[in-house]
Amino acid sequence: MTPISFAERTLTELDHVRLERLRRQGEALRVGDLLDLASVVPSREVAPDVVTMYSQVLVHEGEGEGGSAEPRRLTLCYPADAEPGTGFISVLSPVGLALLGLRVGEVARWSGPDGQPRAATIAALLFQPEASGDYTT
């Protein structure tokens, strides 16, 4: 499996600050590399195709055209708002961490509970708070 490259990710300043706070509280130790390596931009300047916190994405399991036929709708959220059964996935989960900061068309990669490599292609960004003018969510 290709290692995750956090250097190719983009975070908003607000998302970075909030995740850094979780890391300092000991809740988000796994996001350290992402916080240290990702490009950080002001919320008003993030590209509209970047997955940010509370973005709603459409993903196909697998990579590219070989992915699943049925897309899944996921919303990236903080742990307190997570409800995996309804598609609200925590940024601290392997899937959430794999999605944050990627762009439409890119492939998120993570390890499943069984240790096997998993992947999902971001087919569409259905909602991004910043693109709708919400810079504080």
Describe this structure in words.
It is globular, with a radius of gyration of 14 Å. The strands form two sheets. The protein has a five-stranded mixed beta sheet with strand order 5-4-3-7-6. Strands 1-2 form a two-stranded parallel ribbon. The model has no long low-confidence stretch (mean pLDDT 89). It has one domain (6-131): Transcription elongation factor, GreA/GreB, C-terminal domain (Chitinase A, domain 3). Helices cover 18% and strands 27% of the residues. With 137 residues, the chain is of the alpha/beta class. One of its GO terms (biological process) is regulation of DNA-templated transcription elongation. This is Transcription elongation factor GreAB.
Key structural traits:
single chain, 5-stranded mixed sheet, two-stranded parallel sheet, Chitinase A, domain 3, 137 residues, alpha/beta, 7 strands, globular
Net shape: globular
CATH class wording: Alpha Beta
Oligomer: single chain
CATH fold group: Chitinase A, domain 3
Q: Count the helices. How many?
A: 3
Query: What's the alpha carbon Rg, rounded to whole Å?
Result: 14 Å
Biggest sheet architecture: 5 strands, mixed
| Reported CATH architecture | Roll
CATH H-level superfamily? Transcription elongation factor, GreA/GreB, C-terminal domain
Count of distinct structural domains: 1
> Helix-strand pattern, N to C?
EHHEEEEHEE
Strand order of the largest sheet: 5-4-3-7-6
Q: How big a fraction of the residues is strand?
A: 25-35%
The total count of strands amounts to 7
Content-based structural category = alpha/beta
Name the average pLDDT: 89
Distance separating the two termini: 34 Å
Segments where pLDDT lies below 50 for 5+ residues?
Answer: none
Helical content class: 10-25%
GO molecular function, one term: translation elongation factor activity
Keywords: Elongation factor, Protein biosynthesis
Pfam families: GreA_GreB
Domain Transcription elongation factor GreA/GreB C-terminal: 49-123
